Amino acid sequence: MKTVSRVLNAEPAVAVSTAERVREAAVRLGFQRNEAAAHLRRLDRSTRLLGLVSEDLRNPFYSALASAVEGVARHNGYLLIVASSDENADTERGVLSALITRRVDGLIVVPTGTDHSFLIPEIDSGTAVVFVDRPALAEQVDCVVAANADGAVSAVHHLLDHGHRRIGYLGDNPGISTAQERYRGYRDGLTAARRPVDDSLVRLGLHDTAAAEDACRELLAPVDDPVTAIFAGNNRLTIGAVHAIANQARPVALIGFDDFELADVLRPAVTVVAQDVDAMGRTATELLLRRLAGDRRPATLVTLSTRLIPRGSGEIRP
Amino acid sequence: MKTVSRVLNAEPAVAVSTAERVREAAVRLGFQRNEAAAHLRRLDRSTRLLGLVSEDLRNPFYSALASAVEGVARHNGYLLIVASSDENADTERGVLSALITRRVDGLIVVPTGTDHSFLIPEIDSGTAVVFVDRPALAEQVDCVVAANADGAVSAVHHLLDHGHRRIGYLGDNPGISTAQERYRGYRDGLTAARRPVDDSLVRLGLHDTAAAEDACRELLAPVDDPVTAIFAGNNRLTIGAVHAIANQARPVALIGFDDFELADVLRPAVTVVAQDVDAMGRTATELLLRRLAGDRRPATLVTLSTRLIPRGSGEIRP
DNA sequence: CTGAAAGCGCTTACAG
DNA sequence: CTGAAAGCGCTTACAG
User: Fold this and answer.
1) In contact, A52 and A80? CB cutoff 8 Å
2) Span A65-76, pLDDT tens digits
3) Does a structural domain hold residue A40?
4) Nearest-Cα residue of chain B relative to residue A49
5) Local structure of B28: helix, strand or coil
6) CA of B182, C1' of C14: distance in angstroms
7) How many domains does chain B have?
């Protein structure tokens, strides 16, 4: 009898005695409703499943993001599927398609590939999508990003204010929009202060700690007219720079983009341009949930400001 | 016509021309198979969904675990739902039941509550479960843990070997099995060396960095006969101890349980008892997949060894 | 307040 | 090689 459904869904019009019997039987048989089957027939078609696609969870930036997203999802009755794109466009497309095939209600994506137009049909047919950290399909899809260029400008100005003229830059692959924006901020910051941009002080395409450490060592090697300060474009690269500078006799100023644990315990403590990863994850998820609740306003681009936290390493003078 | 199903599942017995027509139509209509519906009728009943329940993903230990689990899952065609238990037994039970209701094929759980017997019926009815980091329902369910007591013993002996007689201990809530085991190792290590255990040098129930920092400060405060070494029971507590010791005039030896990024850059670099989190996640997931593939052998307890990495802080003499 | 019928999107088992 | 029927576990819409 399908009154069972009514009891288990706590619908009103059921006799108390019947409800009792049903519940007793459910417990005795260890009955567990099959959510997947339920969603199949329900009118709202929602699965209460969200998907998060990002790079490696081992990176504290992405794990903080995942944690924030999971928290908001869970508190709103959603379960979260996480999938790593391995920073590879094909893997990304694969996991996105797997998630769509599972009929997740919404997707939060740190985009890796350059063309996400294959998502448009899915979005049109009802899957909500928010891009986070890096914009994609702008104007068509909601995006939540940090003020990357502004943050980089503030770091460069901070170093210039402390007397530095030769500021090295360590950047990730410029194909990644955050890397590109921060590099742009580095250049704009110098230009705005009427300082030339010296490409020999710039190392791009660094994607891990070891590469950053090597590149940083290179920048610090010259004996005459050396780099006196380093601006590192993300948390991985900052760690690499810290390693390189630690083995250095002379003091070198350092500012890193992204805050990190222990930045305050290192000697000197590390000055950073901090972004609010938690707010980024929460904002993206709340935006997504609002879309799922029927919000049909035009796509927005939310830009979260960054904050320079002086701790010592960025205040070293040349 | 249900030949469509055959084409989309790449079954053999279909005319090439028919297959062509079907595929063309599928692309044109933007057809996406609904996996949930497919699983409903399939004989093997599998959803190709795995669930991971752990504490906060922000903790590098759990994010490394999640990353390892997700990687193995993805490479085997499974999607991973992650849910945080917030280190709360009720939340844990809630997310576990949500995952079971979704009919995940298998569950990897860092147990928080003390009684997981409510999972037994689910396990009996086919949901595979592996506990990781902390054992639960031992003998009945597979568990993958580190050699916590052994690791702690090795840390204590290392400090004793370096001349320390007053070794402070910072521990998490002893209700957590890892905390209990490490505390046991601390005591056993002293006892085996015929050294008394002095409870006034022990602080338990510390669950975050700030609490550990305060407790560590307390241990270091006495002017006469002070603690000369600290053994911190997990990554959070080590960070707290590093903070406390950094503000200290005299040198204090430190060994932390769990390795952490930058441990080698701090001055002194931090000696740790490292556990292989990646291997823990991979082993647990592979064990789970083997169960899903039909392995019916008795439940096993896999214990992964730890490794003491001397870096400087653990070799400071009193 | 309760139940029989139909249907969600698929796969299975079977007949042709 | 192809299709009609039945069924997975639920909810919906409707009749009583």
Assistant:
1) yes
2) 999 999 999 999
3) no
4) B81
5) helix
6) 62
7) 3
